[in-house]
Design brief:
About 40% of the residues lie in helices and about 25% in strands. The protein has about 270 residues and is an alpha/beta fold. It is globular, with a radius of gyration of 18 Å. The structure holds adenosine-5'-diphosphate and magnesium ion.
Length: about 270
């Protein structure tokens, strides 16, 4: 069996005493691109926060890159986190720093590389996301899609074994979003990075997913291949994949969400 980079066993996660998610069993093996989907507010971001120890589980065990996170001291937790790339929702660039300085931030935090080596790595990562020319630019001079690419370069600069992306294409137009999807696939295929991508964009899921995990009603409602997801008879899964208008309040929420995401992007 392939090596698991992330393993959750009987995990409950939440913010008070009441769990948002319970009974979560999840294993992410090397080389996969796993999509985590589900309607807004179902707990996708919460799941990712648990995965990297930003949120301690109320119950269960979480192993990240072989380390049990429960009870791990801050220093070792930071060391594990340095091996995981994060592209978080709203994980914005620092506006006063140039593109190159933004991408170099994790190198400064986690390594003692010389400025020359650091510059070389930053240049490589910017090239990987197709933004060699943006070195001196400030975030305000970039389009929404370019900002996402810079954030991706920053998430990749320490050559993570595992990359977690929370709604990477939120607020992007469909063409730019599709470009970002291709970039993620490229990272999987050329860099052999294991990716966990949270998205509720059906188009995106159908393009990139090796495996689909669906969160609904406080637990993992589905875990399988894209084909299995399409054939799954469970109502929550079918609603999601057939995008029935059966739940108008959810359709409304996701539209609002998109509008507010677009608003954020414009600022
Ligand atoms: N910091 C927090 N404190 C309290 N409740 C939270 C916090 N973050 C999220 N929640 C709640 O947890 C639930 C799941 O949120 P989240 O994981 O952000 O959903 P998703 O990413 O799927 O949209 C929601 O009901 C949300 O209101
Ligand atoms: Mg979220």
């Amino acid at each position: 069996m392939a090596e698991a980079l992330l393993e959750m066993q009987a995990v409950a996660l939440g913010y008070g005493t009441e769990p948002v998610l319970r009974g979560v069993d999840l294993s992410i093996e090397r080389g996969q691109l796993v999509v985590i989907c589900g309607t807004s507010g179902c707990g996708k971001s919460t799941l990712l926060k648990g995965a990297i120890g930003l949120l301690a589980p109320l119950e269960g065990h979480i192993r990240l890159l072989g380390e049990e996170l429960v009870g791990l001291d801050e220093e070792r937790l930071n060391r594990v986190r340095a091996r995981v790339g994060l592209l978080f929702q709203g994980g914005a660039l620092l506006n006063s720093l140039t593109v190159a300085e933004n991408v170099a931030l994790p190198l400064e935090q986690h390594t003692r590389l010389s400025p020359e080596v650091s510059r070389t790595l930053v240049r490589m990562k910017l090239a990987q996301v197709g933004l060699e020319g943006a070195w001196h630019k400030l975030p305000a001079e970039l389009s929404g899609g370019m900002k996402k690419r810079v954030a991706l370069a920053r998430a990749m600069v320490l050559d993570p074994e595992l990359l977690l992306c929370d709604e990477p294409s939120a607020g992007l137009d469909p063409v730019t979003a599709a470009g970002l999807d291709r970039l993620l696939l490229d990272l999987r295929d050329t860099m052999h990075i294991t990716l966990v991508v949270v998205t509720h964009e059906l188009q995106s899921i159908e393009t990139i997913a090796d495996r689909v995990v669906m969160v609904a009603d406080g637990h993992l409602a589905f875990d399988g291949s894209l084909d299995e997801a399409r054939r799954c008879p469970l109502p929550v899964v079918r609603d999601f994949f057939e995008r029935r208008a059966a739940r108008p309040e959810q359709a409304g929420r996701s539209l609002l969400e998109r509008l507010s995401a677009a608003e954020v992007e414009r600022r």
